[in-house]
C-alpha cells in the first residue's frame, strides 16, 4: 500500500477556457469515454466523481477559476492504493479533456505539477504533473509550464461530432424541439405526397419553413448556449428526406396527368368499341311465363343482355329501345296496376301494384337500352317461407345429429367405464391370487408355519438367548452394581418382547403355527432353566 508524499509540490492543470466550458466538456467526455464511468456530478461546485473499470476507488475532478477570467484549472484526487495505473489514467483524463475542449473552443493548456486534494472518504496520494497532450513518461517535474500539443486526428473526429451534438448543460432548447416536430411533420407529408401528388410550390414552402427552423435551432445550440444540437441534426436530416419524397410525389402527379390528356382524343374510338361490345352482348331471349316476370308485360324488344331470374325477382336490359318504346312500356305498366307510389321522369319509372310488387324501368337514350327489374312481394314471401322451412328442417336435422352424437358419446363413455371396471376387477383378482400363492409359497418354505408367526417367534427366541447370555454373565460376576443399568434395560426389552407375543391373535394360527410356537417355547424354557 502506497503512502502520501510528505513534501508534495503544488500544481494543477490549467486550460484557457471559462469554468463553465471546461466543466461541460469534462461531463461530456466522461459520458462518452469508455475508459471512465461517471458516478456523480455537482453543477454547483463544478465537481465530478468517476471511476475506472480496472481500478478500485474513486477519482474526483473539480474545475476552479484560473488566474484570469478566461482561464480555469482542474484539480484531481486519485485513490491512494492505485499507484502507477492511476497516474496513467490521470494522464489520459487530461489528454482527452484537452481534445474535447479543442472541439468546442480554442484551448491553450499549460502543465504544472498536480497535487492531490484531501478526500473526505478515502486516502489520497500526490499525482505527478501531467501535460495535457503527452504521456506519463514525458511529464515534466520542474514545475515549468509546457504548451500542450494537439492531436490532429482526434481533434478532427471530435470537431465533426461537435457539429452533430453539443455538451451544453441545462434543458433542451425549445427551438430545437419545434424544429424537430416540424421536420417530422414534413417527413410524414413527404410519404403522403407519394400518393396524393401535391403541387411543387407547396412542397418547397413546407421545406423552407422547416429549414429556417433548423437554422435558428442550430444557432441556439452553439457551444455555451442551449442544449439540443442532436435534435437539430435529426430535424435537418428529416427535412432533407421529406423534401426529396415530396418532390418525387409531385413529379409523379404530373406524369399521371399527361397520359390522361393523351387519352382524350381516343374517347370516340373507345365509344365505338363500347358500342360493338354491346351488340355482341345483346342476344335473343324469351319472356318467362311464370314467376315474378309474368306479373308485368313483356317489352317489344327481341334482344336483351344481363338477364337475371330468381324466385322472387327478375331483371334484364332490353336492346334497341327508343324513347317512344320506353313511354309505351310505361303506359302498359300503368295498365297492369302499377300506380302505387309512382315516380316518373324522362328516362326512369318506379311504382308498385296493390299486391306490393315493385317495378323499376330505366331508359338509356345514348345506348338505346332499357333496364327492367321487378321484385314480387308474394314470391318474396313464399321464398322467405321456403327458406324458413328449409332452415327449420336444417336445424332439426342438426339437433337430431347432435342428440345422436351425444347418445353415442354417452354409450361410449359407459362402455369405457365398464371396461375400466372390468380391468380393475381382473387386476384385483390377479393380485389376490398372487398374494395367496405367495403366502402358500412362504408357508411351504417355513414348514407350513405362517411367516408372521415364524418371524415373531424367531425374534422372541433370539432375544431370550441374548437375555440368557446376559444373565449368565451377570450371575458369574456376582451381580455387580456397574451392570445394574444394563440389567434394567434388558428387563425393559424383555417386557416389550413378551407383550408383542401376547398381543398376537392365536385364534387365527394354524396347527403348524401352534406346533412351531411350542417348539420355540420349549427351547426357550430349557435355556432359562440352564441359567437358573
From TrEMBL:
Superkingdom assignment: Bacteria
Domain DUF6591: 410-532
Region of interest called Disordered, as start-end residue ranges on this chain: 256-275, 376-451
Biased composition (Basic and acidic residues): 383-438
Membrane-spanning ranges: 172-193, 199-219, 231-252
Pfam family, one: DUF6591
Lineage of producing organism: Bacteria, Bacillati, Actinomycetota, Actinomycetes, Bifidobacteriales
Keyword terms, alphabetized: Coiled coil, Membrane, Transmembrane, Transmembrane helix
Protein name: Actin
